[in-house]
Amino acid sequence: MFIRRLPRFEYHVATSVAEALDQLSVHAENAKVFAGGTDLFVSMKKRDVTPEHVINLKGIKELKHIHYHDGEGLKIGGLVTIGELECSAIIKGKFRALWDAVKVMASPQIRNLGTIGGNLCSALPSADTVPPLIAMGASVKLTGSKGERTVLVEEFFKGPGESILEHDEILAEILIPSPPENSGGSYFKLMKRNAMDLAIVSAAAFLVMDGNKKVCSGACIALGASATTPIRASKAEKVLINKEIDEDLAVEAGKVAAQGARPRSSIRASGWYRKEMVEVFAKRAIMEAYRRIIRDS
Ligand SMILES: Cc1cc2nc3c(=O)[nH]c(=O)nc-3n(C[C@H](O)[C@H](O)[C@H](O)COP(=O)(O)OP(=O)(O)OC[C@H]3O[C@@H](n4cnc5c(N)ncnc54)[C@H](O)[C@@H]3O)c2cc1C
Question: For residues 184 and 97, what is the distance between their CA atoms, to the nearest angstrom?
Answer without folding.
Answer: 8
